[in-house]
Automatic annotation (TrEMBL):
It holds the Pfam family adh_short_C2. PROSITE patterns: ADH_SHORT. Belongs to the short-chain dehydrogenases/reductases (SDR) family. Residues 16-185 form the Ketoreductase domain. The keyword Oxidoreductase applies. SMART domains: PKS_KR. Keywords: Oxidoreductase. This is SDR family oxidoreductase. InterPro entries: KR_dom, NAD(P)-bd_dom_sf, Sc_DH/Rdtase_CS, SDR_fam. It comes from the Bacteria.
Length: 249
């Protein structure tokens, strides 16, 4: 890059193809809307047929809904095939689908542990594995894995969730190291308390958030658009904490 070319490349996603898991509601829906607004063609992938279809319809002809269970290999193969069939490429994968459960360790059943690991960690592995062949063939791609502040520190009762989110952080780093040579970037995002269906039972007053409030989903979406775009062309293997300063304290 010559000195004259040294300018910040913007977050224009013109025509890029992005698949967002868990895209039907909550944070995933905010990511899908923001990526679409930045010019991307967006695949909303979720178990929730009605909400997912409604969002794709609202976004219009640069969007479509695909039913996806992130824990299922065949479902991933079908979703990637549908994306390539509709839009001819897959440039951005946002592995956002997630669930949470909580229990003190003596009461954490194997079924609860398995469920949270299956969606939050195995689902991310399956998603990355499913898109890499197309990204390698293109010679480019951005994989954005949604972890949490719980992927950076522990909290009582959140054992399976925390283990899954630390796992997502580690997987993102091993993938970033392996896939950089193919032009594929992999980063993890670590939201703090964001107001969605997942967090209705959490009292923000009990958390020490320097900005003094929880966030709404749109406040994380800017980081996702940045990581999807050429504005982050040299950013890989990095961890983006979006938590109002909470874990800095
Ligand atoms: P949410 O419950 O509102 O949405 C989760 C979405 O994932 C839903 O649309 C759901 O249908 C989908 N989903 C669940 N299991 C799935 C599966 N097997 N296959 C496909 N889709 C599936 O939750 P949210 O708050 O929007 O969270 C989104 C992500 O952000 C999760 O990974 C969560 O762990 C993470 N996160 C959330 C917060 C927060 O404060 N809300 C903080 C940190 C991290």
């Amino acid at each position: 890059m010559s000195a004259g070319d040294r300018r910040v490349r913007g977050a224009d996603l013109g025509g890029r193809v992005a698949l967002v898991t868990g895209g039907a509601r909550g944070l995933g829906a905010a990511y899908a809307r923001a990526l679409h607004a930045a010019g991307a063609r967006v695949v909303v992938a979720d178990l929730l047929d009605d909400e997912g279809r409604d969002l794709a319809t609202e976004l219009g002809d640069r969007a479509r809904f695909v039913r996806l269970d992130v824990t299922d290999e065949a479902s991933w193969a079908a979703a990637v095939e549908a994306t390539l069939e509709s839009f001819g490429a897959i440039d951005v994968l946002v592995n956002n689908a997630g669930i949470a459960n909580a229990a003190p360790i003596e009461h954490l059943t194997l079924a609860k542990w398995d469920a949270v690991i299956a969606v939050n960690l195995t689902g991310v592995f399956l998603g990355c594995r499913a898109v890499v062949p197309a990204m390698k063939a293109q010679g480019s791609g951005s994989i954005i894995n949604i972890s949490s502040v719980e992927g950076m520190r522990g909290s009582p009762g959140l054992h399976g969730y925390t283990a899954s989110k630390f796992g997502v952080r580690g997987l993102s780093q091993s993938l970033a190291v392996e896939l950089g040579q193919f032009g594929i970037r992999v980063n993890s995002v670590h939201p703090g308390l964001i107001l969605t269906d997942m967090t209705t039972r959490i009292d923000p007053a009990k958390l020490d958030i320097p900005l003094g409030r929880p966030a709404v989903p749109d406040e994380v979406a800017g980081t996702i658009v940045f990581l999807a775009s050429d504005a982050s062309s040299f950013t890989s293997g990095a961890e983006f904490v979006v938590d109002g300063g909470m874990i800095a304290g």
